[in-house]
Structures are given as C-alpha cells and as structure tokens.
Amino acid sequence: MAHHFKEEDIDEFRECFFLFARNGQIRTLDELTVIMRSLGMSPTINELKGYLKEKGGKMSFPDFLKVMHAHSRVENLPKEVVDAFKAGDPGKKGTIAGSHLRHLLLHWGEHLSAKEVDQIFREANVTSPNSLVKYEDFVKIACAPVPDYY
Asked: Which PANTHER family does the UniProt entry name for this protein (predicted)?
C-alpha cells in the first residue's frame, strides 16, 4: 500500500499511528477513530466498525495503510460540503449570506464556538454578516489543512 501515498504522508501516518496505538496494534474503535480523525479523515462510526471488523478486531500499521487508502478513495469532504451548500441553494447562485453561514456553523453539526467562527471568517475574508459568501471558495479555505508550525 505504500506506493499509494507520498513518503511524507506515510511518515505522518506512522507517527500518528504509533502515538495512539502504542503497542503497535489498533485494538479499539476509539483508537482507530482518534487516529483517522487526527489525520484529517471523517469516517462514520459504521465505517470505522467495518474497518476494524474486516481486520479481525486488531490492525497493524500495514493494515492501517490499506484502510487509509480505501477510505481516502471514498471520502471527499470538500465536495460533500459544497454539495450540501448547493442543495440548500435553490437559486443556484453559489453564495450564502454571511449571517446564515454563521448561524449554520454555530448551531449545526459540531457547534463551533463564536471565536472559532470569527477565526474562520477572518481566514476566509468574510468581513460582514451582510456580505454574500461564495461557498465554494469558503469551503476551500475551511477544509484546507492546518499549517504545520513545528
């Protein structure tokens, strides 16, 4: 499976894997959940259970790479988020009011804090609650990986 990922990605996967699976094996759903989500994946609980069951309840690092490859092929979070915005955009204008976007981020899903929403809005250059936000541009910024400063 190593040939499906860049060397630096595998190094990051390995570091995360062995940080949370200290005995070299993933043995619990919690371990797999934390590791995959720490690496930016968003698998559902049912997907996670299936991956662990598929591997007999425990997973080595090579098994984990296979799971990461399989999951990365089915998950496209930015596209899923844009599709959700499009579904709520009957006029197909490609925009959402800043105030409505703020409301969604504060009250739906993971319920971001006002401080977190303000930070995302600053990064996405949303300057006013009255402004119209191009949701495809917003999603690109909001789903971008967090910079590594270490």
From this structure: CALMODULIN LIKE 3, MYOSIN LIGHT CHAIN 1, 3
Max Cα distance, the chain (Å): 54
pLDDT at 3: 63
Torsion sign, CA atoms 137, 80, 64, 22? positive
Radius of gyration over every alpha carbon of the chain, rounded to an integer in angstroms: 18
What is the rounded CA–CA span in Å between residue 100 and residue 86? 14
pLDDT tens, residue by residue, 137-146: 998 888 765 5
pTM over cut 0.90? no
Residue ranges per structural domain of the chain: 2-74, 77-142
Helices marked H in the chain — which ranges? Answer: 7-20, 29-38, 45-54, 61-74, 77-87, 98-107, 114-123, 135-142
CA–CA gap between residue 71 and residue 13 (Å, rounded): 14
Model pLDDT for residues 36-74, shown as the tens digit of each residue: 988 888 888 899 999 999 999 999 999 999 999 989 888
Question: What fold is seen in the domain 77-142?
Answer: Recoverin; domain 1 (1.10.238)
